[in-house]
Each structure stands twice: as structure tokens, then as C-alpha cells.
Amino acid sequence: MRIEVLPDAAAVGAAAAAVVVAALISRPHLVLGVATGSSPGPLYDALAQRVREGLDTSGVQAWALDEYVGLPASHPESYHAVVARTVTGPLGLDPASVHVPDGAARDPHASAADYEAALARTGGVDLQILGIGHNGHLAFNEPGSPAGSRTRVVPLTVRTRQANARFFGGDVDAVPTHAITQGLGTIGAAGHLLLVATGADKAEAVAAALTGEQSAEVPASLVQRHPQVTVLLDAAAARHLPASFGVGAARLAGVAEPR
Ligand code: GLP
């Protein structure tokens, strides 16, 4: 596992974009797993800049991790809409090559199974971008999710719905109660995992995922058993990691002490 601690979210985004660009150069038909949420925003911004400078993304396929159940794709906070706004457009991807689970399907369980099967038919994700939830969740795999789980319908915890209420005008009741999510087994099958986390509020989850026991209670601890993982953190998100994990190096580089 490669762990790098960088000064701030913009630096994390730039370093993460460099990982994606390197993967794309070595494999023009890259199957890229994309995450939603705030964490990958600077990464998508940095990649969009590279695309404006001429980076060719015409061969890329993108597969989203998850989607709310019951929100129409036209809802601005559906992950269909978020991925179109933050990934498809800015990275210049062909919309036909961008895939998001169908959370508005009449039978979301069948649509989850179809998504898993369609992803498997591509040969799987080459590079998976990941954020991390405050409780250590990955995609919408909440604590307790089985290690071998596949794409399925899951209930969301109150904590996750509260965290995401900011996207729904602060109204937790407006946040759907269920989602379709790739499972931990699905995510773990990707060739390379790229985890980005920024901000002091992620520090506990990051430390638990990277240094704690591998456990279903911390879904993101799956990174400890994956053969190719890159973790990019800002100093605040790294503040509970031991110095051997690079926090010391960030301080030496003149980074302000996190709160
Ligand atoms: C959301 C998403 C995850 C994301 C996480 C953290 O609920 N389903 O894919 O990684 O929570 O989000 P953020 O990056 O906004 O903190």
C-alpha cells in the first residue's frame, strides 16, 4: 500500500489525477470506477484540466459505485445526475460509456444484479476511485457489510443520511433510506484502489481503515487486504496515523499542524 500525505485537498486532487492519468496512458481503454461525494471533487477538477489540455479520454469507460433507490435520474442529487455533472461532462466521456446503477427501477434488486453482471462482462474495474464515510463506509457498504458482498440493495444508516442531508437542503428526511451499492467483494475485485480522504472529520475513519483490525465493522479496512492500493490524504485526515505513515513528512514539508 502506498500512502501519501499532502498539504491540502487541492494537492490530494492533483496527486490522484496523476495516478488516473498514468493508468490511462498505459491503458487507453481504462475501466475507471468513479465515486461521488465531496472527496473526489478536486481529483475530477484536476483531471478536467488535463482533458482541456488535450488528454484523450475517448476510450474510457466509467462505472459508478452506487445510487440512491427511489430517486429519478433527473433529480439533481441522484448519482446519475452527479456523475453526469462532475465526471461525464468535465472529463469529456461518451455518456454511453458511463454506467450508474438504476435506483429508480421497478425492481431495484434485479437492477443491482444486472449491474454486477454487466460490470463483470467488461472484465471488471481497472482503477477504482474511493472516498470514505465517517463510519468507515465504502460506497454505501455500511459497517457490518460482508467482505464478499456484491452489488445489492442496502439500507442507509442514520449517520450516513445525516452526512448526506447537506445535498438535500439539510433535510435528512429527504435523503433516501436505501441505495444500490457495489459490494465489498465487487470493489475488492478492481485492479487498483485509489482512496482519497481530506479533512479532520475523516481522521478517525482513515486511521481505523489503515491501522485498525480488518473487520466488517470498518468496511474500508478492505484496503489492507488488497494487493494494489494508493491512499492520498491531506494532513488533517492523516492526523491520527502514526508518524511512520508519512504525517511527519507532511509536517517537515511545512504543513500547518491540523487542528
Ligand atoms: C457517500 C458515498 C460514498 C462516499 C462517502 C463520503 O455516502 N456513497 O461513495 O465516499 O459517502 O462522502 P464525502 O466524500 O462527501 O465525504
Cα shape: globular
Multimerization state: single chain
CATH architecture: 3-Layer(aba) Sandwich
Number of strands: 10
Order of strands, widest sheet:
1-10-9-6-2-3-5
Low-confidence stretches: 248-259
By CATH reckoning, the class would read: Alpha Beta
Q: How would a crystallographer describe the biggest sheet? A: 7 strands, parallel
* Portion in beta strands: 15-25%
The mean pLDDT is 94
Radius of gyration over all CA atoms, rounded: 17 Å
Number of domains: 1
Order of helices and strands: EHEHEEHEHEEHEHEHEH
- The first-to-last residue Cα distance is 27 Å
Number of helices: 8
User: Can you tell me the CATH topology?
Assistant: Rossmann fold
Q: How much helix, percentage-wise, in residues? A: 25-40%
Structural class: alpha/beta
In brief, what are we looking at here?
The protein has helices at residues 9-26, 41-52, 79-88, 108-121, 158-164, 184-188, 203-211, 247-252; strands spanning 2-6, 31-34, 61-64, 66-68, 98-99, 127-130, 152-155, 178-181, 192-197, 229-234. It has 259 residues and is α/β, with parallel strands linked by helices.
Description:
The chain starts with a strand and ends in a 7-residue tail after the last helix. Residues 248-259 have low confidence and may be disordered. The chain is 31% helix and 16% strand. The protein contains eight helices and ten strands. Helix 1 packs across helix 2. Strand 2 (31-34), helix 2 (41-52) and strand 3 form a beta-alpha-beta unit. It has one domain: Rossmann fold (3-Layer(aba) Sandwich), CATH 3.40.50.1360. The protein has helices at 9-26, 41-52, 79-88, 108-121, 158-164, 184-188, 203-211, 247-252, and strands at 2-6, 31-34, 61-64, 66-68, 98-99, 127-130, 152-155, 178-181, 192-197, 229-234. It has 259 residues and is of the alpha/beta class. Bound molecules: 2-amino-2-deoxy-6-O-phosphono-alpha-D-glucopyranose. 2-amino-2-deoxy-6-O-phosphono-alpha-D-glucopyranose binds at residues 35-39, 65-66, 131-133, 139-140, 160, 164.
